[in-house]
């Protein structure tokens, strides 16, 4: 297991790999790794002989009143988890290595990055896109792996990769859940027992809405038609004892909200809500059949 802290050392390794035509799998993380990250690392290591996992809590993607200072950090445990799941290299740079004095560039994405998380957390996706771009330029991966839990982030990264012609395949891996449905997240560590119980209502709301959609009857002639407000009401009624920021049914590709959805369309059900002071997000993507 190699632990690399500088961009130049990482470049030497990945340039050699490219010269030898070895594919590079990449899993960008902010550390505090859990079972969701383990799936990404496992999948990457099955597909590539070299798997780089970055561990970097990126200050640019946190708002001034967010949890940058308290975000859980444990590099030793992360390195063990990466090694145990087949990662070959850890890239763990300092903030000075990533953003040295005089750093002045920001990647800004319009459209898909402006709604939902983008609206609730101004500047968040600029910070994500900037760090992911720099990490991609450092690791030069063939394929990068992201968890579906951060659904909008996956769309933002895909948009950046397409717009800037980055030769990197983006692989989005299904959310890993606890037995009661709660999506695995580093931030779950903030929840006390009571908040942890309340947090399960996110998955209940999403699965209830998905069931509601599949239970709608398709007319003998014509397409199934489902009203957005009914889907969203279904989610809202199941969200108990959490402070809801949004609970929406949107087009899964564009995140646009329409009044009605029809058979043949793919929609994303997205929730952001607080259990106590912890902000949680979760989603389910479903085809209307
Ligand atoms: O999903 C995350 O953990 C972060 O947003 C990422 C992609 C590692 C960028 O800091």
Annotated CATH homologous superfamily of the largest domain: HUPs
What hetero molecules are in the model? pantoate
Q: What is the name of the CATH topology of the largest domain?
A: Rossmann fold
Overall CATH class of the largest domain: Alpha Beta
What is the CATH architecture term of the largest domain?
Answer: 3-Layer(aba) Sandwich
Specify the overall morphology: globular
N/C terminus separation: 46 Å
Summed up:
Helix 6 (about 125-140) packs across helix 7 and helix 8 runs antiparallel to helix 9 (about 230-240). The longest helix has 23 residues, at about 195-215. With about 290 residues, this protein is α/β, with parallel strands linked by helices.
What report would you give on this structure?
- The protein has 289 residues and is an alpha/beta fold.
- The chain has two domains: 2-173, Rossmann fold (3-Layer(aba) Sandwich); 186-283, Pantoate--beta-alanine Ligase, Chain: A,domain 2.
- The chain is built from nine helices and eleven strands.
- It has helices at residues 7-19, 35-47, 75-84, 95-98, 117-120, 124-139, 151-163, 193-215, 228-238, and strands spanning 2-4, 24-29, 50-55, 89-91, 143-147, 169-173, 225-227, 243-251, 260-262, 266-275, 278-287.
- The strands form three sheets. The protein has a six-stranded parallel sheet, with helices on both faces. Strands 8-10-11 form a three-stranded antiparallel sheet, covered by helices on one side.
- It is globular.
- The termini are far apart.
- The model has no long low-confidence stretch (mean pLDDT 97).
- Bound molecules: pantoate.
């Amino acid at each position: 297991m190699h632990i690399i802290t500088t961009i130049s050392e990482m470049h030497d390794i990945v340039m050699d790999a490219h010269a030898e035509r070895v594919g590079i799998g990449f899993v960008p993380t902010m550390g505090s790794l859990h079972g969701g990250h383990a799936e990404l690392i496992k999948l990457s290591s099955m597909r590539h002989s070299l798997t780089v996992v970055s561990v970097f809590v990126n200050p640019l993607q946190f708002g001034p009143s967010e949890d940058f200072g308290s975000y859980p950090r444990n590099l030793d445990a992360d390195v063990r988890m990466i090694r145990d799941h087949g990662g070959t290299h850890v890239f763990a740079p300092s903030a000075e290595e990533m953003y040295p004095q005089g750093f002045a560039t920001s990647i800004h994405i319009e459209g898909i990055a402006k709604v939902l998380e983008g609206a609730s957390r101004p500047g968040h996706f600029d910070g994500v896109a900037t760090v992911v771009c720099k990490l991609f330029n450092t690791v030069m991966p063939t394929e990068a792996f992201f968890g579906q839990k951060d659904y909008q982030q996956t769309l933002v990264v895909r948009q950046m990769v397409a717009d800037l012609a980055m030769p990197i395949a983006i692989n989005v891996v299904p959310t890993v859940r606890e037995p009661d449905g709660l999506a695995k997240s580093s931030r779950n560590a903030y929840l006390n027992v009571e908040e942890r119980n309340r947090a399960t209502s996110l998955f209940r709301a999403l699965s209830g809405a998905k069931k509601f959609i599949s239970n709608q009857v398709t007319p003998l002639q014509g397409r199934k038609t489902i009203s957005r407000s009914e889907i969203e009401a279904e989610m809202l009624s199941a969200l108990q004892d959490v402070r809801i920021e949004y609970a929406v049914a949107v087009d899964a590709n564009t995140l646009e909200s329409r009044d009605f959805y029809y058979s043949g369309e793919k929609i994303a059900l997205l929730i952001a809500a607080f259990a106590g002071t912890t902000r949680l997000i979760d989603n389910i993507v479903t085809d209307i059949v």
